[in-house]
Specification:
376 residues; mainly beta; five-stranded antiparallel β-sheet; 5% helix; globular
Length: 376
């Protein structure tokens, strides 16, 4: 019986096992990590992952990160023996440059943990240092450099307050060293999300208690001296406070997911083919009934995850006329991070929370199904 089948059997039999154990009919049996038996963010929930190379993912599972083989993209598998490293706390995002020697984990407490990846004797991962930023909201990797966006936004009585910075850390050394710090364009702006496009780092930001949001570019061609580039504010007036929930890259476009009101979202493309002149395209608004938790792209296809409210697929082949092409409404997985396998193979990998690392059949966007689920 496969591990997958054994785990499914244990999950189904968990109530009976618990009763028999309580009656003394069974010895000590370890509980299977199934749905409600997992508490908090520990115990095996898959909360984030990033691609290490063509055949390997780095996956965050509760108290550790693990290297996972995707040589067979349909069935992600643990190595034997398993290759893991401890996490200082629950991770909400992992990021690294494909094939580089550094990986970064954004922790739920706002710190950033740095990991080293080495190829001798086989690919391994080990913790290096922790950047105690305390209020980081997003990270983006560029080799041995990690960009960290921090933000504190709160209301005290009748006064609202926002404080935000963009840090540039060199992780070549251990511990990592801060090289540069950038403030937003005004004191009322806060950085929300980061994404690297070629030699440009793009930041998504919003204005305090305002409907204004935008993107700003930083030239990172020389990582030893990052310089400020162009910015573009939204060109669509909305009647509510907003912030940017997620960003991803599709060709020469940034795909920006933002919230114009509670549980309503919109996706819009920003043409960044000329980094000095980013241009917003018309947004596609929709009601999501949940918070946007991730974006992933493959060519013109864009998938937006909404926690346990499903995953929607959009076609951005024409950024001036975007279309929704499918909805996956399985409410069990709490999808937080996604990656799409290129080359038209029809496979997504989703960090599905308690559902584990999910390999999804996305050949038909309107009828997405599960190939395999890896629970560790």
């Amino acid at each position: 019986m496969s591990r997958h089948c054994i785990r499914s059997f244990l999950c189904a039999a968990a109530p009976l096992i618990a009763v028999l154990s309580a009656l003394g009919g069974l010895g000590a049996i370890a509980s299977a990590q199934c749905g409600p038996t997992i508490t908090g963010h520990f115990g095996g929930e898959t909360t984030a992952f990033t691609r290490v190379n063509a055949d390997t993912l780095l996956v965050a599972n509760g108290t550790h990160v693990e290297l996972v083989s995707v040589f067979n993209s349909f069935e992600p598998m643990s190595f034997s023996p398993r290759r893991t490293a401890p996490l200082n706390g629950p991770a909400v995002k992992l990021d690294m440059t494909l094939g580089s020697g550094r990986a970064y984990a954004l922790l739920k407490n706002g710190d950033v943990q740095v990991f080293s990846l080495a190829n001798a004797p086989g690919l391994t991962v080990s913790p290096l240092s922790t950047i105690a930023s305390g209020d980081a909201v997003d990270i983006a990797a560029a080799g041995n450099t990690v960009f960290i966006a921090t933000q504190i936004e709160q209301r005290i009585g009748f006064d609202a307050y926002i404080d935000s910075e963009l840090y540039v850390y060199d992780a070549t050394l251990n511990p990592a060293v801060r090289r540069q710090t950038f403030e937003p364009l005004t004191d009322d702006y806060g950085y929300d999300r980061l994404v690297v496009v070629g030699s440009t780092l793009w930041t998504g930001f919003h204005e305090l208690e305002s409907s204004i949001y935008g993107v700003e570019g930083f030239n990172i061609a020389n990582l030893a001296s990052v310089t400020r580039g162009a910015a573009a504010l939204n060109n669509v007036a909305i009647d509510d406070e907003t912030s940017i929930a997620a960003m991803a890259v599709s060709g020469n476009n940034l795909i920006v997911g933002y919230s114009p009101s509670s549980h309503d979202y919109a996706l819009a493309a920003v043409d960044v083919s000329i980094p000095s002149a980013p241009a917003w395209r018309p947004p596609l608004p929709f009601n999501s009934n949940g918070d946007m938790t991730g974006l992933a792209t493959s060519g013109a296809l864009v998938r937006a995850a909404f926690g346990n409210r499903g995953v929607r697929t959009f076609d951005f082949a024409d950024p001036f006329n975007t279309q929704q092409t499918g909805v996956h409404n399985d409410l069990f997985p709490f999808v937080t991070r996604m990656h799409i396998v290129g080359g038209g193979t029809g496979v997504d990998w989703w960090a599905g929370g308690r559902a584990g690392l999910m390999s999804m059949n996305t050949t038909n966007p309107s009828a997405v199904g599960t190939y395999w689920t890896l629970k560790t």
